[in-house]
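Archive record
______________

***
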Amino acid sequence: LKTDGSSLSFGTGAKILQVVQAVSNTRIATTSASYVATSKSVTITPTGANSKIKVEVTGVGNTQSGNRQIMCTVFRSINGGTFTDICPDNSSNHGFWNLRDSGDRVHAPFHINYLDTPSYSVGNAIVYKLYIRSQDGGEIEQPGSNNAEPTISMATEIAA
């Protein structure tokens, strides 16, 4: 939004209606081969009908040891409903980002950037949450250590 409160326009009529950001540096470690929720989430309540939501999550993953793989994806819940994975074509269950090391511990940044087209009613709160999993059951973590690099989650409402 501009400082005068009006929306930005991008030529084809698309307008940014709102931007919401959340920052967390809470560490989560898991050995689960299934996706587990982290505390990294952002909630947006669309003000327009049929808006698209640009979801961005930036953070760091850590394989904790050699020969491990960490995978990250984003799940969505609309109006308190069930969280579902929004990664397109996630048949391999690798999510939006994955990191595999080849013998040594790896600590690396990631950035997930996705334009979501959720089905909602105006006034419904939409929660986007980062989920992680370990490919082989070895311990992985996000972020890299306690109170380390923050994870920044953003949701931008774009008018239809």
